[in-house]
Design brief:
The chain is an alpha/beta fold. It has helices at residues 42-56, 64-73, 81-102, 131-143, 163-180, 196-206, 223-230, 246-254, 270-282, 296-308, 326-331, 358-362, and strands at 4-13, 18-26, 31-35, 117-121, 148-152, 185-189, 211-215, 237-239, 260-261, 287-288, 315-316, 342-344. It starts with a strand and ends in a 21-residue tail after the last helix.
Length: 383
């Protein structure tokens, strides 16, 4: 059997942060690619991939599950976003190789497709400081073919009451709803920056605007707080982008704290683990709406999950229109055309991306700090 001879991480600047691509090369010349992008932590991900390479070099590339178990369990200090993101990229690359060896798309190796096309949602895009600018951005996304858009809460809410933030959020979303009409699905992301009382204050204000879901109303992993919100929230609640394995998701699933789970295939253990998370959620009638504000690698890998997952609902994406991103245009084996809100299933062998390391030279890593919001009294806030 062919053996792995190299595991190489590359940082590529997307203009809105640094993307990490992992290339696994085998002794017969076969290569597979995966993405492990974590904003502001690219160098940490690269270091973790290099550590994992010490085990992978010399191994049989076809033993995907064995390698997943080794890298997760034998790390001893298991999980966490750094190791899980590195593992996710490696897992994608191994599935990419498997599909290429059989000349089949990855979804066809996992029982085949359960749907014919995949529903996508996106974000408004450029930051807007007023409802008019937000509406203009959303109408541009609709013109690009999207039928679902996720909006946010402006700024950082106060901790106990924030009626002004609730009203501002309502006014922004109401302006968009009036502009796009009733047939465009809208979602709201609180980004985990509210307490339960403020989250419910906001939810009650925006509930009449016909929303698909309310994302991360409170910070993750506090199931009791999630239950406090979801039991009183008039909108279906979603969470999951900051959970990194089935063990992280277990109590949220078993307590039925939300209606929709959002594992990020680039952080939650890759294709292998995301399938397991989705299967666990299905037993509690939870839907899957994978998180993905990332590059071509995680986007394509997520489409394969969407193709073969029965309880898949919708896929987050930041796919730029063709010709607007040199990086995307070079990395996609087939173009992603959004028609009436959907994209067709990927058909290229493997995941459907390619990578020339010259991209890392033409778009080199650029260090950048994260955001640092503050509350009215100057205390640290969440973004």
């Amino acid at each position: 059997m062919p053996k792995i001879v190299a595991v190489d991480p590359f940082a590529v600047n997307l203009g809105r942060g640094n993307m990490v691509i992992v290339r696994i090369r085998c002794d017969d010349g076969m290569e597979g690619y995966g993405e492990g992008t974590l904003p502001h932590k690219a160098r940490a991900i690269i270091g973790a991939v290099q550590d994992f390479a010490e085990y992978l070099v010399g191994q049989d590339d076809s033993q995907i599950e064995r390698h997943w178990q080794v890298l997760y369990r034998n790390s001893f200090q298991r999980g966490g976003v750094i190791l899980s993101t590195a593992l996710s990229a490696i897992d994608q690359a191994l599935w990419d190789i498997a599909g290429k060896r059989l000349d089949r798309p990855v979804w066809s190796l996992m029982g085949g497709a359960v749907r014919d096309r995949i529903w996508l949602y996106t974000h408004p895009g450029r930051r807007a400081n007023d409802p008019k600018g937000l509406v203009e951005n959303c109408l541009e996304r609709v013109d690009e073919g999207y039928t679902a858009i996720k909006l946010g809460i402006p700024g950082t809410p106060e901790l106990v009451r924030d009626p002004r933030k609730a009203a501002e959020t309502h006014d922004n979303i109401a302006a968009v709803r009036d502009a796009v009409g009733p047939d465009i699905a809208l979602m709201v992301d609180a980004h985990g920056k509210s307490t339960p009382t403020v989250a419910l204050e906001i939810a009650r204000a925006i509930a009449p605007l016909d929303l698909l879901f309310f994302e991360e109303p409170v910070p993750p992993r506090n199931v009791d707080a999630l239950l406090q919100v979801s039991r009183s929230c008039p909108i279906p609640v979603a969470t999951g982008e900051r959970m990194y394995s089935r063990w992280d998701f277990r109590t949220t699933i078993e307590s039925q704290a939300v209606s929709i789970l959002q594992p990020d295939l680039g952080h939650a253990g890759g294709i292998s683990e995301t399938r397991r998370i989705a299967a666990a959620a299905e037993t509690y009638f939870m839907q899957i709406a994978p998180h993905n504000p990332r590059g071509p690698g995680v986007t394509l890998a997520s489409l394969h999950i969407g193709a073969c997952t029965p309880n898949f609902l919708i896929q987050e994406s930041l796919i730029p229109p063709g010709g607007q991103s040199e990086i995307w245009d070079e990395m996609l084996v087939e173009p992603l055309n959004i028609v009436n809100g959907y994209v067709d299933l990927p058909r290229a062998p493997g995941i459907g991306i390619r990578f020339d390391e010259s991209l890392a030279e033409r778009f080199p890593f650029r260090p950048a700090d994260t955001q640092h919001p503050v509350l009215k009294d100057g205390a640290v806030g969440d973004w």
